[in-house]
Design a protein that fits this description.
Blueprint lengths: L4 H22 L3 E5 L2 H5 L2 H14 L4 E5 L13 H6 L14
Parallel strand pairs: 1-2
Helix pairs in contact: 1-3
Length: about 100
């Protein structure tokens, strides 16, 4: 399913909808961990849905973790500024080849 951008986008749409719906219905929080975040946001539909999830997460008592190898992976990514500005906490580790 990850090889088909349309199917992956639709799956994400459904999953994020269910996460928010269940959280609100049960008055419970949630945690979504997206490792290798860059690979997800290259899909336009996923990009849009992840951005929407991040903006709604705090209202639903949720936490979204976006994991990247390097902050520069967001260069040129659609909605990159929105992803960063909607994060409550950024944890950046030094790298030996940092710019």
């Amino acid at each position: 399913i990850t090889q088909n951008p349309k199917d992956l986008g639709l799956l994400a749409y459904y999953l994020f909808y269910k996460i928010l719906e269940e959280s609100r219905k049960n008055d419970s929080g949630f945690l979504v961990f997206l490792d290798e975040f860059k690979s997800y946001v290259e899909n336009d539909l996923l990009n849009t849905k992840i951005n929407a999830l991040i903006t709604q997460a705090r209202k639903a008592n949720g936490v979204v973790v976006l994991a990247l190898q390097d902050i520069y992976q967001l260069s040129g990514v659609k909605n990159a500024h929105s992803f960063l500005s909607n994060m409550g906490t950024l944890i950046l580790y030094p790298q030996k080849n940092a710019r």
